[in-house]
Amino acid sequence: MSQFEHLEPIVWNAMTLPMEERIAFAHQDRWIGYTRAQEAINTLSDLLSHPRTVRMPNLLLVGESGNGKTTIIDRFRELHPVAAAGGGEPLMPVVVMGMPSEPNESRFWTELLLALRIAHRDSDPVQRKKNQAHSILTYVRCKMLVIDEIHNVLYGHARQQRQFLGVLKNLSNDLKLPIVSVGTRDAIRALHTDPQLSSRFEPFGLPRWQLNAEFLRLLASFERLLPLANPSNLIDRDIAIKLHGMSGGTIGGLSRILKRATAQSIRDRSERITLKTINQIDWVKLSDYGKQAQLL
User: What is the CATH number of domain 35-206?
Assistant: First the structure.
């Protein structure tokens, strides 16, 4: 496989696959440990190992949509998977759940129980679901609760918001459990509804990518994971500028563009991504979705 030295070894075997299987391989998600992502992993690790205290620290992972928040959380969960204790009982150090579409306590406990894979009835009283969730979190020795889409708190009226944030505060206090909230910039506004709670959440930002050396390193890392027979030289000035503009400075946008461009390059047998390839793919920036919808 020496002809594929421009690729990571984990990609070499994919180069012998039939066309459609190689394209499917290209569309798989892979972890790229760029600087800010690794810093986030380290911060989460420190929080996970934090001793139980009266006032547990919490984290707010905040960034634009499509800029790597969920990927970081998924990677962290992979690093701390469900295991079995000596007696066979399950250990779930990191529990990840989605925030309901509005700050509703009953629906929150339902989502948490679903994340814990615990059978229950949606119609159960709130207190019963709460007690069940508390009991299971203790049983599986949960060390961290991650709540994605926390900005959904804003989709309720002021009283609902205050009541729900009180639920989070009590949950952290009762179980001495660090909570990681994940969301867009609106999440900062959501948590500031309760000054006491917001002071516990240390913000960790994932800013949009700038067109700089760090972005070029990201492009080089991506290129080594794309199953193409020829180097694309994505750090070329014109290609880098084009990719940065199309992606809107988000890693999610960049990943989707490169996956489509890779598929195009495999199908047309050019085996490299060029400006022509990039211009051929059908792409609309996330920020332009609204404009595009008006044309439909």
Answer: 3.40.50.300
- Give the CA distances from residue 138 to residues 52, 92, 97, in Å, rounded to whole numbers and listed in that order: 13, 10, 16
Return the residue matching tokens 């990927």. 71
Residue ranges per structural domain of the chain? 2-30+209-288, 35-206
Is 28 strand, coil or helix?
coil
Nearest partner of 268 among 279, 256, 253, judged by Cα: 279
Task: Please report, as a single letter, which amino acid is at residue 182.
Answer: V
Model pTM? Answer: 0.89
- How many residues are there in the chain? 296
CA–chain centroid gap for 205, Å, is 13
Interval 69-79: pLDDT, tens: 999 999 999 99
- Beta carbons within 8 Å of 109's beta carbon, 6+ residues apart: 126, 129, 130, 132, 133
225-265: pLDDT as tens digits: 999 999 999 999 999 999 999 999 999 999 999 999 999 99
